């Protein structure tokens, strides 16, 4: 793979070699974490965004496509990749028992990614940008490349496809490889999230040019990585966690949770433990601990699902005592609380207003304000330690340009993942 720092005689010459090379290589490596993962459904009811279901026993490459919104959870941002892989191995997990079709637009599986979350993950963002917000219309430090050609493309460049019509969706992809014969580009590899999983396509230079010139596509280059991300830096938060996501996980063969493993729950969500005992060693009991202290020990007669409510917030483990007295590998999870209060009187755009929150076993990191209708105005309020201590997020006057219904997403994280509390408010 050839990675060039700048174009000869171009306006990109102010990119420094070290910073440009480093983040571009990282972007390619991170994209491959999600696009290269292999998994095989163990049950027949995992919904596929193309319609129907993923086929039991068939190996797939790349994470599934599903616009989970705040209803499900986004792989890489809300959960570890290994949490998804653990859920795949549990036939009673939310991947097979939950279907987001009809509950969230463009959604299917409970865990998934879409084009914008895939590129945002690769580009080391702490929270996904919308596809339409990747370019210079919304971000600093990014420009339209000239010429719009394979000969100008470099790994880390972004391809944006605007909506085909009003109200339709847009799309974003990432250039991950450029092949050269001397100074001439011969092929360009593009990776993206699209139904049913990710795509990895190597285009000849001529085919790439034809593709870029169709459907008003635009080829963008990030020239100032820090300016483009702003406060939205993955390294400032616990997720995405590229080290964990790139490691090969040890999936529990005896016991798995309905949400996989290594995952947070709301404290009012029941936890369903599936005693699988795949190696048929025999299980005597299920032991649940909170912060290292036994909460309950449950006698087990046979394989099956055991459901428990765990209303006390904390970090939990669960393991099985086997028939021979040995202990199984432990599943890890947490229970948390995240409360949100909005003004009782509709706020106005020309005056500041506040969002208050409470959190237990979570650190609130950001509040997103989203207009659910085109042009999808979106603003992120990144919280300080003082904001967290006070339990308030301040919305400055003039932040929102449009009146109407606004979605408020309050996002908290701990070492196991993120939870989002979504509310709605009308802003005048």
Describe the 3D structure.
- The protein is of the alpha+beta class.
- It has three domains: 1-249, no CATH class; 255-336, Immunoglobulins (Immunoglobulin-like); 342-427, Immunoglobulin-like (Sandwich), CATH 2.60.40.
- Helices cover 15% and strands 34% of the residues.
- The protein is built from eight helices and 24 strands.
- It has helices at 17-35, 81-88, 94-97, 115-122, 205-213, 225-229, 242-246, 385-390; strands spanning 38-39, 60-61, 73-74, 111-112, 142-144, 158-161, 171-181, 184-193, 198-204, 218-222, 255-257, 263-266, 271-275, 283-290, 293-299, 304-308, 314-322, 331-341, 353-360, 363-370, 378-382, 392-395, 404-414, 417-427.
- Strands 12, 14, 15, 17, 18, 19 and 22 form a seven-stranded mixed sheet that branches.
- A hairpin with an 8-residue loop joins strand 17 and strand 18.
- Helix 1 crosses helix 4.
- The longest helix has 19 residues, at 17-35.
- The radius of gyration is 23 Å and the shape is globular.
Radius of gyration computed on alpha carbons: 23 Å
Shape: globular
Number of domains: 3
- The tally of strands reads 24
Helix-strand makeup class: alpha+beta
State the major sheet. Answer: 7 strands, mixed
Strand content: 25-35%
What's the overall average pLDDT, rounded?
93
Counted by DSSP, the helix tally is 8
- Uncertain residue ranges: 1-18
Helix content: 10-25%
Taking the alpha carbons of the first and last residues, their distance comes to 52 Å
């Amino acid at each position: 793979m050839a990675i060039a720092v700048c174009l000869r005689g171009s306006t990109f010459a102010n990119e420094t070699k070290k910073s440009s090379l480093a983040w571009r290589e990282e972007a390619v490596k991170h994209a491959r974490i999600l696009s290269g993962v292999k998994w095989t459904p163990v049950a027949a009811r995992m919904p596929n965004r193309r319609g129907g279901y993923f086929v039991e026993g068939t190996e797939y490459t790349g994470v599934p496509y599903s616009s989970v919104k705040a209803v499900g959870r986004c792989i890489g941002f809300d959960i570890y990749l290994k949490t998804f892989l653990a859920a795949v191995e549990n036939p009673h997990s939310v991947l097979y028992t939950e279907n987001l079709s009809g509950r969230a637009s463009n959604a299917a599986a409970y865990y998934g990614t879409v084009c914008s979350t895939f590129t945002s993950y690769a580009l080391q963002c702490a929270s996904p940008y919308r596809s339409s917000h990747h370019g210079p219309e919304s971000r600093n430090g990014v420009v339209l490349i000239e010429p719009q050609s394979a000969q100008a493309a470099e790994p880390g460049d972004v391809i944006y496809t605007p909506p085909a019509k009003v109200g339709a969706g847009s799309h974003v992809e990432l250039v991950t490889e450029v092949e050269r014969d001397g100074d001439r580009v011969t092929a360009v590899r593009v990776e993206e999230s699209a139904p049913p999983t990710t795509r990895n396509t190597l285009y000849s230079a001529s085919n790439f040019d034809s593709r870029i010139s169709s459907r008003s596509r635009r080829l963008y280059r990030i020239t100032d990585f820090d300016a483009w991300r702003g406060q939205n830096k993955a390294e400032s938060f616990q997720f995405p966690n590229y080290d964990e996501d790139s490691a090969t996980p040890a999936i529990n063969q005896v016991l798995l949770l309905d949400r996989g493993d290594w995952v947070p729950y709301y404290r009012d969500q029941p936890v369903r433990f599936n005693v699988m005992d795949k190696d048929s060693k025999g299980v005597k009991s299920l032991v649940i601990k909170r912060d290292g202290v036994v909460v309950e020990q449950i006698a087990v007669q046979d394989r099956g699902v055991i459901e428990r409510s765990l209303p006390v917030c904390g970090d939990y483990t669960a393991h099985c005592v086997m028939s021979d007295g040995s202990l199984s590998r432990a599943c890890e999870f947490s229970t948390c609380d995240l409360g949100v209060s909005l003004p009782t009187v509709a706020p106005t755009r020309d005056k500041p207003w506040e969002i208050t929150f409470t959190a237990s076993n979570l650190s609130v990191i950001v509040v997103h304000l989203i207009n659910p209708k085109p042009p999808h105005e979106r603003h992120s309020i990144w919280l300080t330690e003082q904001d967290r201590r006070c339990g308030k997020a301040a919305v400055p006057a003039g932040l929102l340009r449009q009146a109407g219904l606004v979605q408020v997403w309050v996002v908290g994280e701990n070492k196991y993942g993120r939870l989002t509390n979504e509310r709605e408010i009308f802003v005048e």
